[in-house]
């Protein structure tokens, strides 16, 4: 009898601890403790094991990653995003829904970085300035201006201004004007290291805040270097394309979330994530015969090889959850049209075994995954605790993005 009472007391102590933890977080995140949802019958009836897991409370962080490079210069990813946004509107019942409404983090490299900026930068009304269709049209219309052909001998240290291509669209908007956590990489020739433009870092200091037009120019620079400075003029970088630094930014986005407890306080592992990773088509088949004439083709092959390795590693990390919590859209064949690429069966990378086709097409995978995103979106409307607490003001807290190079800070 004494042992039974002791066990019961232990369980009650655990339950009490969980309840006080919930109340404490309500105060920490600035919500009212008298929220009627807090003591609803639904939450009172939850068993101890569910309280311990917290998944009914905290939900999952939604991540969008968009590759750079590839054979389509962002058009494949752009069309995938158009289809995804259409599915999200249909399933949510909101005809004005945007991609940014259903993701907490976006990481884009090269063409993917441009798409990320177009979809996640806010206008004067506080809404994204571009729909997915408008973003795709922008990339298609300005494709030749944005993604210049590489020089036959290698990289060119020619500095071009982003004003003509991106200035008209973004004006004086900066990283602080983005709606969600944004990560856009480039390779900095000044420091000889990757540099990641990060919304979180921009809110901490103007030394890491850059104009969006400069960010887009940097990540899409390709083999034409771009020189730029931060808002306070103290950080200078000489950038070449994001695909040089990280062609597939999925792992960088996941790492940012898992190591950023200030903005994603309850995310502890991949089981707490929903990830959409978009490729831009592989260009290796068209480059094989050009290796001797075009040395820079090796750079593209290396980038695409790294992208596949990232896909393999992320797939393995998700394990049994990869089919429900992680989706990768990619094409490994040169087809007549982008639409054919999306309608073909999806390609998956298998560690040490190359690639394999799966039964679902790329479009079918996006449609199914849109349901998961909408479900998480709806769940948050009745959530007790916030899944994400994004920064909205600068402060003296520790930096959250370890990916950003600090060696570029100067005294200029």
UniProtKB/TrEMBL annotation:
Keywords for the protein's UniProt record, in alphabetical order: Hydrolase, Lipid degradation, Lipid metabolism
Highest taxon, organism lineage: Eukaryota
EC numbers on record: 3.1.1.-
Biased amino acid composition, Low complexity: 393-412
Residues in coiled coil: none
Family annotation (Gene3D superfamilies): Cytosolic phospholipase A2 catalytic domain
Residues spanning the signal sequence: none
Domain (PNPLA) ranges: 65-254
GO MF annotation, one: hydrolase activity
Function statement: Lipolytic acyl hydrolase (LAH).
Domain remark from Swiss-Prot or TrEMBL: The nitrogen atoms of the two glycine residues in the GGXR motif define the oxyanion hole, and stabilize the oxyanion that forms during the nucleophilic attack by the catalytic serine during substrate cleavage.
Protein name: Patatin
Originating organism: Daucus carota subsp. sativus (Carrot)
């Amino acid at each position: 009898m004494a042992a039974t009472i002791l066990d019961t007391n232990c369980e009650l102590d655990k339950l009490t601890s969980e309840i006080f933890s919930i109340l404490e977080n309500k105060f920490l995140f600035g919500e009212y403790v008298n929220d009627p949802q807090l003591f609803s019958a639904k939450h009172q009836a939850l068993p101890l094991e569910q309280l311990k897991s917290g998944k009914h409370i905290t939900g999952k962080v939604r991540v969008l990653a968009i590759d750079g490079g590839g054979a389509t210069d962002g058009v494949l990813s752009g069309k995938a995003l158009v289809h995804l946004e259409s599915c999200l509107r249909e399933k949510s019942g909101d005809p004005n829904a945007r991609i940014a409404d259903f993701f907490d983090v976006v990481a884009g490299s090269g063409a993917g970085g441009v798409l990320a900026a177009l979809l996640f930068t806010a206008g004067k009304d506080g809404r994204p300035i571009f729909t997915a269709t408008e973003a795709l049209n922008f990339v298609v219309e300005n494709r030749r201006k944005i993604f210049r052909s590489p020089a036959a001998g290698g990289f060119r240290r020619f500095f071009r201004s982003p004003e003509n291509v991106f200035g008209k669209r973004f004006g004086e908007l900066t990283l602080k004007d983005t709606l969600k956590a944004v990560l856009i990489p480039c390779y900095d020739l000044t420091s000889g290291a990757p540099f990641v433009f990060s919304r979180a870092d921009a809110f901490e200091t103007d030394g890491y805040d850059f104009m969006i037009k400069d960010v887009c120019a940097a990540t899409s620079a390709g083999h034409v270097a771009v020189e730029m400075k931060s808002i306070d003029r103290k950080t200078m970088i000489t950038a070449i394309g994001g695909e040089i630094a990280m062609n597939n930014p999925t792992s960088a986005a996941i790492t940012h979330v898992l190591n950023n407890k200030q903005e994603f306080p309850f995310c502890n592992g991949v089981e707490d994530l929903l990830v959409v990773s978009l490729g831009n088509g592989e260009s290796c088949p068209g480059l094989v015969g050009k290796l001797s004439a075009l040395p820079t083709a090796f750079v593209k092959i290396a980038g695409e090889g790294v992208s596949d390795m990232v896909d393999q590693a992320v797939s393995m990390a998700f394990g049994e959850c990869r089919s429900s919590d992680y989706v990768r859209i990619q094409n490994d064949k040169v087809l007549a049209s982008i639409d054919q690429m999306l309608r073909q069966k999806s390609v998956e990378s298998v560690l040490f075994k190359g690639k394999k086709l799966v039964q679902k097409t790329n479009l079918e995978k996006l449609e199914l995954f849109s349901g998961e995103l909408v479900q998480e979106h709806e769940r948050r409307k009745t959530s007790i605790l916030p899944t994400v607490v994004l920064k909205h003001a600068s402060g003296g807290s520790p930096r959250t993005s370890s990916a950003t190079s600090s060696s570029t800070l100067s005294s200029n």
